[in-house]
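queue> pop job 88
queue> type: inverse folding (structure -> sequence)
queue> payload:
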């Protein structure tokens, strides 16, 4: 992609730690994200995703650890590291009272583009993000989705080879979300390395070639979707809602689970129960009987194949959405 110093496209993070006072927001994070791939950082609010993004973009100073972008150390060679780095922040980085075109010109100029080259890039980006018709309008009149697309455009004016996207689809209508997914895959297919943070597991499953799951600053799982599914296990997940006497539920399920440990209670709350079950559908009658005996009332039952959500529950004992 025309990087004159032939650096290897991508991000390498080694042992990244970020403390805010006594609080550790990122705790020993290490991974490598490569060109031509979408690397997903998936985790609930507060997991440390934006803090990690801040460290990679050079906005936040790491407490310890090392980060390189396109082979350049972000702390020691910030200019070289940032030259082909595009950042699309969680908080919109656009000026609502500056026409869309001028927002793009502003960011292009900030990266050293001038004259005809700048004009051409701005036109190209307007086309890419589908805002040619609205180029002269003020972003404050745009829908949330259009603002997100412009925010994305501002991050790619200088043709970055590494793009950081921090929860780009929050508050976006379904149509704009689809467009954003297309924009991301286009950049990926052109060889860019994309780091994509999200707390939506469907998004990670759909978009990412490789996924790291974060919780409380730590990486708790890492791999391709297929690998992570395997970690989640072969067992179906049965989610029951209703009313459950928590203390009594575990023993009765354990009792019908023996001798082969065919059932495992992953989550037991007064209004929700999640059970990992081998061939769950054939075991439903026994489960219902046992629960009834324990004084439970079941109002709804859902059966799911293992996915990232079930993996997250298995690893943390809580729901990703919570
Ligand atoms: N500047 C800061 N000062 C103190 N605490 C912070 C600061 N920025 C983030 N945090 C805390 O660090 C944790 C991780 O935040 P963040 O990286 O924004 O998570 P995420 O992006 O995954 O939702 C949160 O508990 C947050 O409150
Ligand atoms: Mg965040």
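queue> result:
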């Amino acid at each position: 992609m025309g990087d004159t110093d032939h650096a290897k496209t991508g991000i390498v993070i080694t042992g990244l730690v970020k403390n805010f006072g006594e609080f550790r927001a990122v705790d020993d994070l290490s991974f490598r994200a490569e060109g031509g791939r979408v690397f997903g950082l998936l985790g609930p609010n507060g997991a440390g995703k934006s803090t990690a993004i801040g460290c990679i973009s050079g906005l936040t100073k790491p407490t310890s650890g090392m980060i390189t972008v396109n082979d350049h150390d972000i702390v020691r060679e910030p200019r070289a590291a940032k030259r082909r780095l595009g950042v699309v922040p969680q908080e919109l980085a656009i000026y609502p009272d500056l026409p869309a075109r001028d927002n793009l010109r502003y960011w292009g100029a900030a990266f050293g583009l001038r004259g005809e080259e700048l004009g051409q890039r701005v036109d190209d980006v307007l086309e890419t993000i589908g805002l040619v018709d609205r180029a002269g309008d003020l972003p404050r009149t745009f829908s949330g989705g259009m603002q997100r697309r412009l925010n994305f455009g501002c991050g790619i004016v200088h043709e970055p080879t590494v793009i950081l996207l921090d929860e780009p689809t929050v508050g976006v209508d379904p149509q704009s979300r689809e467009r954003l997914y297309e924009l991301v895959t286009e950049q990926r297919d052109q060889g860019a390395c994309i780091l994509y943070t999200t707390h939506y597991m469907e998004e990670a499953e759909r978009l990412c070639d490789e996924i790291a799951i974060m919780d409380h600053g730590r990486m708790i799982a890492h791999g391709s979707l297929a690998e992570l599914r395997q970690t989640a296990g072969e067992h179906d997940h049965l989610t029951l809602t209703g009313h459950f006497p928590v203390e009594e539920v575990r023993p009765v399920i354990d009792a019908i689970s023996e001798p082969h440990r065919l059932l495992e209670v992953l989550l037991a709350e007064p209004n929700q129960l999640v059970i990992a079950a081998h061939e769950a559908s054939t075991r439903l009658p026994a489960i219902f009987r046992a629960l009834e005996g324990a004084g439970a009332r079941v109002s709804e039952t859902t059966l799911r194949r293992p996915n990232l959500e079930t993996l997250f529950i298995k690893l943390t004992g809580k729901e990703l959405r919570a």
